[in-house]
Amino acid sequence: MADVEAKTSADIEKQFKEYSVAEFFKKNRQMLGYSGEVRSLTTIVHEYVTNSLDACEDARILPEITVEVESLSASPRETDVGLGDGTTLSFQIDDEIARAATLAIKVDGIEVARGADYVIKYEKKGKNSFRVISFKKTPPRQGARIVAHWAAGHLRVSVEDNGTGIPKTKVGQALGQLLSGTKFLNREQKRGQQGIGASYATLFAQITTGKPIHVKTSIGDYKIMEADLTIDVKKNIPVLSNQKEYSGKFQGLRVEAEFSEVSYDRSEYGVYEYLRRTAIANPHAQLTLIEPNKEVTVFPRASSTIPSKAKPVQPHPLGLTTSDLIDMAHITQARKVSSFLTGELAKFSNDKLNELKALLPHLDLDKHPSKLEWKDAEEIVNSFKKIKFYNPDLDTLVPIGAEQLEKSLKNLLQPEHLKVIERKPRVFRGGIPFLVEAAVAYGGKAGSDGVKAEVMRFANRTPLLFDAGNDAITEGVKTIDWGRYSLKNYETMPVSLFVNFVSVYVPYTGAGKLAISPEEEIVAEIRNALMEAARDVSLYLSGLQKAEDAEKRKQIFFKYIGEVAESLEDVTGEDQKTLEEKLRKIAEIRTQILTQEEESGLEDSELDEETEEEIQEGS
Amino acid sequence: MVKKTEKTREEKILEITKKIEVLGKDLIAEINRQENPHLDIPIRGSNNVFFDEQNKKIQLGDKKSKRYLFNVAHARRFMQTMLVASYVKKDLLANNLTATLRDLYYAKKHTIKGTKEDTIDEQKESDLAIVDFEVALETFRERLHLRAEPKGRMAGDMVVLDRVRDKVDKIDLSKMGSGGWAVPSIVEQIEFQDVGIEYVLVAEKNAIFDRLNEDEYWAKNKCLLMTTAGQAARGARRLLQRISDEIKVPIYCLTDADPYGWYIYSTMKYGSMALAHESDRLGCPQMKFLGMSISDIEHYDLKAVTIKAKDVDIKRAEEMKNYDWFKYPAWQKEIDKFLDKKIKAEIQSLSSKNLQYISSTYLPEKIAGKDFLP
Question: Of A150, A151, A142, A152, which Cα lies nearest the Cα of A82?
């Protein structure tokens, strides 16, 4: 089988232009997640971890995944960035520091957090632009020393899992061949990139450092294989070297790769946050992170229930992105684009093919699928939206499950209060089934930095860290009137909002798969789920509020007794001191009654105050 | 044509003092029963205000709210209402003195012992407490010896008797010079004599009063000329009502052609939502609207001198369109025209014709043609 595949690939390769693969990567680098140093690193880890989770799930194994990021530079350096003056927010830094593999900024010796406290960005001065450290809120005080602790050079990423491992004949194909993968042949509700991502990571290592990746794997038969792997970019074939086999006890896959143009930090876009959220969405997994400073963090397993397997289905035309189609076209066995479409897409009959032909008369659908160019694929995907397809089968949704999710959120956030909601399946775009899981956690370790709310977005259990702006979950969160849930200032409260969008077809806003398109039905469902959870949290919070109120109330009751008694003496001639004593007694009684009523859940009907129409009069 | 007030000043003081004492004794009784002391206060606000079409008055309904001392939302206002009670009884009525709302504010504002809180922060708070106290006692503030700032002037062929404590002054309103007679804030004691007027013309603006006074309009047209200087003060409103009831002459109102001017008119005529409990005393249902209307702008060809309506004007007009007392078809038509054209005009825009156009042409034409709005 492997031989057949390789042969087919070789056939295809002849039709590729020589530089096509590298070219393709270059052109689509951004869409594949490799833009910006921090994000590139997160993407790499994401590809490996996703593959590991899938591999374990397929074999019904409880995943144990260890991610290590090492700094390979010489000893870290210290550079003075500047002195604070109490007003300046931006401090220029060398490009070298901005692109450093690891970076810690200390103000007066205290480390500040990238993302929360500062960001690194470009600033323009005349014709030149340069990088600056830009503090978000508080400028460093007068005389404060700002120092960058940084290390240039490469980062080594190692990811090890306890999954099925890869048979030695398939290692090259799995990790060293672009536009290749097994997942397309039986499409399931899977996380993220469709099996091609790990090979892109190999290519990225090769491009940025010129070094091969190192692989160690065993399928659990006491035979361990280790090898270095590169991609022959011209031919798009994997090249294994230094291959060795030996006996030993190991099952799973370990990949080590060295990268440049990547940077490690603990911001909300970084590897730490990615793994934390992955752990929340995968309560059955145990994730360990070893950071460049050798700090070890374990996100412990919360549940030993492995999620049920999704039923494999062919992809529905409406759920495809351009890059999905390109990827599929390059691995299909079909000879023509037309038979590729009818053969490998769900609900795509000959009638639909004719409709597509009518919409795209200029496109040659008889050509070989591998000759499908990005532009063609884009046109086809856009035309799908104009064709009326039968709906996908309503069956294949695999949520985390309320019970599992509750376990993992309790495990990782240890919140004071938590509410998890799992909604019933709905449909969008007239028939694509989806489901929303949401949770609101308050207190404990919820929120980021303990003071700021965080919105955790997921699509099929994959954390979405980037492009929060144009996103269905962001939109849902933004349009809720949080004041109604005692969460008016939720942004500055220790609150974590969790949303997982579950569907075989996630309508991503772009090929980068970073944000969910804010379609009406989806946003409405996300809102409903969050509001349902918020109602419960609101009850808890108003309970806290009540205790505080009882104390305030007592103060208010006693505060005015003197004034009232004095006035009453003026009006009636009764003795002020005697009145004050009597009023104090009543205040005590009222306070007790009201507190008891509240504890038994009765509302204080006296609190309804009449509304006062205030029209300005010439008084 | 003199109407005697039924009760003497002393009797009135005694009566209201008694009412305050009863209110105080009720509270003491509650305290002795260890109950939460409360005041019954008629609700003022749109849900307890209605338009009495029969009598053409904005009236207060009979919904009441209970204001408790030991209720977080009520406590402060309860305390302030008691401060008003004490000041009215002990400082004003007992000494036969009157005071302004601002006097009361300063007299009762101080820091509450043992706290950093003031009894009253802004005068608006004590003003509201005063209205609470008025409605709780079912009286009005003049009876409590509280004065509003006087505002409004008049001139015309009429003599009035006014008194300051025991001194009686006879005032000839036809001999008040260029400034006219200033209408006092309390007018209960005024008596009318030697009446030679056939109607009253109320202008919203001082400038119009001065213009017409200079033109000797009131002498030539046998009318009483009055300015309210903006939103009419309580004294001016009460006096207009008394003239309408006691002298029985028609009263015409002249305002700018904009929603604010029309609202001033409606307040004088029907009363207002905020002081709905006093419409009986202050309303003047016989009043008619002479101008200016948007139709006037068209009829007198004033388009060139109109002003573009502001957003607040339009919002006000949209609200007024829904008020029951603006439901007359003629008014609806005017408001619609305003909302459609989005223009307004000042009375002074008539001066674009010539300075005396208002007294020589506009007013005589409108009155002769009975070109009024209800």
Answer: A142
Interchain CB distance below 8 Å, A556 and B75: yes
Q: How far apart are CA B31 and CA B38, in angstroms?
A: 10
User: CB-CB: which of B35, B44, B149 is closest to A613?
Assistant: B44
CB contact under 8 A, A618 and B68: no
Q: Does domain B153-368 have CATH number 3.40.30.10?
A: no
Amino acid (one-letter) located at A62: L
- Domain range summary for chain A, segments of one domain joined by +: 2-64+162-285, 77-151, 317-384, 402-539, 560-605
Q: Does A80 touch chain B (CB under 8 A)?
A: no
Size of interface A-B (CB pairs under 8 A): 132
The set of catalytic residues of B is 106
Whether the model clears a pTM of 0.80, i.e. scores above it, the answer is no
The one-letter amino acid code at A211 reads K
Q: CATH 3.40.50.880: does it fit domain A402-539?
A: no
| B230/A contact by beta carbon, under 8 A | yes
A283-300 core/surface letters (b: 16 or more CB in 10 A; e: else): bbbbbbbebbeeeeeebe
Class of domain A2-64+162-285: alpha beta
Closest in A564, A585, A614 to B274, CB measured: A614
The answer to whether the CB atoms of A564 and B82 lie below 8 A apart is yes
* Cβ within 8 Å of residue A354, ≥6 positions away: none
CA pseudo-torsion sign A111, A114, A115, A118: positive
Judge whether A611 is closer than 8 Å to chain B, CB to CB: yes
In tens digits, what is the pLDDT along chain B, a chain of 374 residues?
444 455 677 888 999 999 999 999 999 999 999 999 999 998 877 778 888 888 888 888 888 888 999 988 889 999 999 999 999 999 999 998 999 999 999 999 999 988 888 999 989 899 999 999 999 998 888 889 998 888 999 999 999 999 887 789 999 999 999 999 999 988 988 999 989 899 999 999 999 999 999 999 999 999 999 999 988 999 999 999 999 999 999 999 999 999 999 999 999 999 988 788 888 889 999 999 998 999 999 999 998 899 999 988 999 999 899 888 999 999 999 999 999 999 999 999 999 999 889 999 999 999 999 999 99
Partners of residue A498 on adjacent β-strands: A439, A456
B119/A611 touch (CB, cutoff 8 Å), yes or no:
no
Q: B151 and chain A: CB distance < 8 Å anywhere?
A: yes
Nearest to A572 among B24, B127, B267 (CB): B24
CB-CB under 8 Å, B66 with A613: no
Decide if B112 and A585 are in contact by the 8 Å CB cutoff. Answer: no
Measured between beta carbons, the chain A residues lying within 8 angstroms of B31 are 579, 582-583, 586
Give SS3 for A91: strand
The answer to whether the peptide bond before residue B292 is cis (omega within 30 degrees of 0) is yes
Whether residues A613 and B49 touch (CB distance < 8 A) is answered with yes
Query: Which residue of B21, B112, B230 is in closest CB contact with A571?
Result: B21
Identify the CA nearest to A250 among candidates A162, A159, A158: A162
CATH 2.60.120.970 fits B9-147, yes or no: no
Contact predicate A130/A92, CB 8 Å = yes
CB contact A137 to B (< 8 Å): no
ipTM above 0.95, yes or no: no
Partner B contacted by A574 (CB < 8 A):
yes
The contacts found for B161-164 with CB under 8 angstroms, 24 or more apart, are B161/B190, B161/B191, B161/B193, B162/B189, B162/B190, B163/B189
Chain B interface, best mutation among A553, A555, A572, A593, by max B CB count within 10 A = A572
DSSP state of A335: S
Q: Which structure tokens are listed for B258?
A: 């904009």
Fold classification of A317-384 is Helicase, Ruva Protein; domain 3 (1.10.8)
